[in-house]
Amino acid sequence: MQDIILEARHINKQFHDPVTVQVLTDITFSIAKGEFVSVTGKSGCGKSTLLYILSTMDTDYDGDLLIEGVSMTGKNDAALARIRNEKIGFVFQFHYLLNEFTVLRNVMLPGMKLNKYSEQEVEHRALERLKMLGIEHLAHKMAYRVSGGEKQRIAIARALVNDPFIIMGDEPTGNLDVKNSEMVFNIFQQLAEEHNQTLLIVTHDQGFAEKTERIIEMEDGKILRN
Length: 226
Ligand SMILES: Nc1ncnc2c1ncn2[C@@H]1O[C@H](COP(=O)(O)OP(=O)(O)OP(=O)(O)O)[C@@H](O)[C@H]1O
Prior knowledge:
globular, six-stranded mixed sheet, single chain, alpha/beta, about 230 residues
């Protein structure tokens, strides 16, 4: 039996801007633990809108989202923020590292936010993640002094610090050259294969998507292929 950890049930989303536009229509799918899934489709098809909903950042939709079998419907902002911090690791197109902090401090941030571990424990976890990604030598550098590819690796280490049940990425290779895009893909693949890490990555990069285990293809707010 597959261990379903994320489930979208008949999700519909409209924007009223000022006319009503249907942006997502009847989105239904589930993701099992350890799957490496990409979401693709043309610009404007609704990928980012869907990711906002799946990551609990947007609650203004019809339908239901279940995380580890628990419905997110009716949960208040504080409860959702807690779920996000504890269970979801984010990797964006732009890394959003804090330049005035060291690499280690940046990786520690989601751990400190959680109020679950002592500072020492968070530091230990952050160093372990940096080691896993082969960049522990950068730990004490200031974030602004590392390269673009290194920054994205640091962002992945940061996403992993709380042992998220899923990593969600929004165009994580969108700002990288071919070599660094491949490096990010390889890290994701390694996380899936060796650590049973679940990944859901929005990308318009067909090359990236085709290498993932499963593609969810969207068109005009609907799932075309899943
Ligand atoms: N706040 C908003 N108000 C009104 N319409 C919006 C809003 N945000 C997005 N949209 C519209 O919803 C549709 C889906 O946008 P979304 O950003 O999800 O697409 P996308 O597939 O992620 O595109 P891209 O690949 O270019 O990032 C687009 O038509 C967009 O114009």
